[in-house]
Design brief:
29% of the residues lie in helices and 46% in strands. The strands form two sheets. Strands 3, 4, 5, 7 and 8 form a five-stranded antiparallel β-sheet that branches. It has a three-stranded antiparallel β-sheet with strand order 1-2-6. Strand 1 and strand 2 form a beta hairpin. It is of the alpha+beta class. The protein folds into two domains: 38 residues; 114 residues, Sandwich (Immunoglobulin-like), CATH 2.60.40.10.
């Protein structure tokens, strides 16, 4: 009897069933982890940590710290930002490529983007930074797996 049971466990049908079950479980697990990360994407956060006028006097350098507390990496693709002071724009609202920067799961990353200052606004930007009267804000856009995620970033904390 034990020999018959042992033989039946080796049958191609049983082996096939076990293989299909294991593959299905593995694929479901990976998909489930991605869905959890996407559901938690509202916890991805970013803030402007430093502002400086570039040496070229034509750009505003914006340092951003972004944190990804999810279990999956997020690939950042674009940044869309604008800078203002006293209701006046210092830069145009623009989009720039981030060359697929990666926010690793459970980690924070710091990077700098460059915004083109409007003509003649370098001194106004420098004064606004010094007087803490500059408002910089926008959106970072990226993907977790193939799901588009975006989140706002500003220098208000």
């Amino acid at each position: 009897m034990a020999n018959a049971l042992h033989t039946s466990l080796r049958s191609p049908l049983v082996v096939s069933f076990v293989v299909v079950f294991a593959l299905t479980a593995a694929l479901f697990g990976a998909t489930f982890q991605t869905q959890i990360a996407v559901a938690q994407s509202n916890t991805i956060d970013g803030a402007v940590t430093e502002l400086t006028v570039g040496d070229d006097e034509e750009s505003l350098l914006v340092t951003i710290r972004a944190e990804n507390p999810t279990s999956k990496a997020m690939t950042l693709t674009t940044a869309q930002f604008v800078a203002r002071t006293d209701g006046e724009e210092l830069t145009n609202y623009g989009t720039q490529s981030l060359s697929d920067a990666v926010l690793a799961p459970g980690e924070a990353t710091t990077f700098t983007i460059s915004l083109e200052l409007l003509d003649g606004e370098a001194d106004a930007a420098r004064a606004a930074i010094e007087d803490n009267e500059i408002s910089v804000g926008g959106e970072l856009v990226g993907y977790i797996e193939n799901v588009r995620i975006s989140f706002g970033v500003n220098n208000d904390g």
